[in-house]
């Protein structure tokens, strides 16, 4: 298991609160922080220009989350992951080797599928803030 906490970030106030809480946990547990943004695109039917703008926006959103985490954890490395796919399954997959997955209670994209029993790693609890 990787000694890290993964936090989902979509730019919403709830995801900002999740990054703040995850940073506190990282300090307390002496583990790494990984900020993740799951981008649900591009779709095959979209023209190339639209898909590229969506990818850039997703990357910018991730950078905002990483910069917030770096301000909260000065001098510590913050890992970033930009993933493409459905947020719920992608976050579950990414968190399997982590100590914890942290998400906001209700973000911009919504990860409604992250409720009830989840196939997270045995030691990877989910925290919804």
Can you offer a commentary on this structure?
The chain has 129 residues and is of the alpha/beta class. The protein contains three helices and five strands. It has helices at residues 13-29, 48-72, 87-95, and strands spanning 4-8, 32-39, 78-84, 100-103, 126-128. Strands 3-2-1-4-5 form a five-stranded parallel beta sheet, with helices on both faces. Helix 1 crosses helix 2. It is globular and about 45 Å long. The protein starts with a strand and ends with a strand.
- The largest sheet has its strands arranged as 3-2-1-4-5
Query: If you average the pLDDT, what whole number results?
Result: 82
Please report the total strand number as a whole number.
5
Query: So how many helices?
Result: 3
Low-confidence stretches: 110-122
In helices, the fraction of residues equals 25-40%
Q: Which sequence of SSEs, written as H and E, runs from N to C?
A: EHEHEHEE
Radius of gyration over all CA atoms, rounded:
14 Å
Please give the alpha-carbon distance between the first and last residues.
23 Å
> Looking at the structure, what is the overall shape?
globular
Strand content: 15-25%
Largest sheet: 5 strands, parallel
Alpha-beta classification:
alpha/beta
């Amino acid at each position: 298991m990787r000694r890290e906490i993964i936090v989902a970030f979509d730019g919403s106030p709830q995801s900002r609160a999740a990054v703040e809480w995850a940073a506190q946990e990282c300090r307390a547990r002496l583990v790494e922080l990984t900020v993740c943004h799951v981008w649900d695109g591009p779709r095959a039917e979209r023209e190339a220009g639209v898909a590229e703008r969506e990818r850039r926006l997703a990357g910018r959103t991730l950078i905002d989350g990483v910069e917030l985490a770096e301000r909260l954890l000065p001098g510590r490395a913050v890992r970033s992951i930009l993933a493409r796919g459905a947020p719920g399954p992608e976050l579950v997959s990414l968190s399997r080797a982590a100590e914890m997955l942290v998400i906001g209670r209700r973000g911009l994209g919504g990860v409604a599928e992250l409720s009830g029993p989840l196939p997270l790693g045995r030691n990877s609890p989910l925290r919804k803030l």
